[in-house]
Amino acid sequence: MLKNVYNWIDERLDITPIWRDVADHEVPEHVNPAHHFSAFVYCFGGLTFFITVIQILSGMFLTMYYVPDIINAYNSVEYLQTQVAFGQIVRGMHHWGASLVIVMMFLHTMRVFFTGSYKAPREMNWVVGMLIFFVMLGLGLTGYLLPWDNKAYFATKVTLEIANSVPWLGPIIKELLQGGTIVGAETLTRFFAIHVFFLPAVLLALLVGHFIMIRRQGISGPL
Amino acid sequence: MSSNHNDEHEESHNPPRRKEMSRRQFLTYTLGGATAYMAAGVVLPMLRFAVDPILQNKEEGAFVKVVEESKITNEPQEFHFELQQQDGWYNSTATLTAWIRKNDQGEIIALSPICKHLGCLVGWNSNKNFPDEYHCPCHGARYTPDGKNLAVAPKPLDQYETKVENGWIYLGEIVPNTVVS
Predict the structure, then answer these.
(1) What is the CATH superfamily name and number for domain B64-175?
(2) Which of B45, B88, B90 lies closest to A90 in CB terms?
(3) Over the stretch A23-44, which tens digit does the pLDDT of each residue have?
(4) Where are the domains of chain B?
(5) CA–CA separation, A49 and A36 (whole Å)
(6) Which of residues 40-79 of B touch A (CB under 8 A)?
(7) What's the CA gap between B64 and B83, in Å, rounded?
(8) Domain A42-217's class?
């Protein structure tokens, strides 16, 4: 039945080569943990991506209840966490996943560094990876404010002070991020927009570039 | 496996054929099953989370004190009353409207002014051409004082559940009209 549906579509659109190109490629022996167990270090990039997918999914579901508004934000988070079925789990995924994605990304970066995989011809992919790293930090920063509790509020105040300390441009950056002269309603909506629309869009574009480069250049050779 | 055996006795007999699963197929099923199991672990909580509102127990409509019974006449009068409603994390007040009259048998009839045609608000005696009727300004639906549909609308006006206690009228949930049907 499923096979017939697939064949019907494939006859018309010839999709087999497309998914072959995406999914069907050889894993070299030196990156396959079944051959050398130590090759598990090559899994960290994939794990980062896996957690990113969970972050995107759980984030999409959280916005069904969350409101980016200074009066309702905390109440909506408390409501979805304590009243809605599985709210604790879904917010938990997003909360812990946010930390885990940074950990996995760090381990992935270490692996790339110590296997020398950033060297020619893969320098550009290292740079894109670094950009992804900063986008992820940005996502973590902007997401931290959204529950609008004391921790979120003061963490954001501190972060904005750090932005303020940039030579010359600091005060402008701070006011731009803050959306005004205080951390308030406009800061919250701004951070929400950045967290949910701007940075994920940039992240997806960078990830596409990251993956295309891996497919073009292949996995770096054994040590 | 038993190819040698088969070759020797070629055409003499057919070996019993067992439906064997190939190693590749077994691995495909195992990997597919394990993947599906893990994906379900991620996705199911989110789906349950999303459908939670339709699975929540609906609140029983409480009766709200609206007006003294002595003020009700044969002629329908408009009354507004407020209903506290819990809307997720937000507590709000909804203002509802009822047209209340007493019929010849002394029954209290409280009608909801939401037209049964397409949901506009009807008014009593609001059109000079149709005296002593409810009239809807949108498409000209008309109703009798008891809410019976005279034109355009397919059903009579809905009623509020009504209760009289200590000379006060209490209104509850909106239910289909029971007076005229």
Answers:
(1) Rieske [2Fe-2S] iron-sulphur domain (2.102.10.10)
(2) B45
(3) 778 788 999 999 999 999 999 9
(4) 3-55, 64-175
(5) 23
(6) 42-43, 45-46, 48-50, 52, 55
(7) 7
(8) mainly alpha
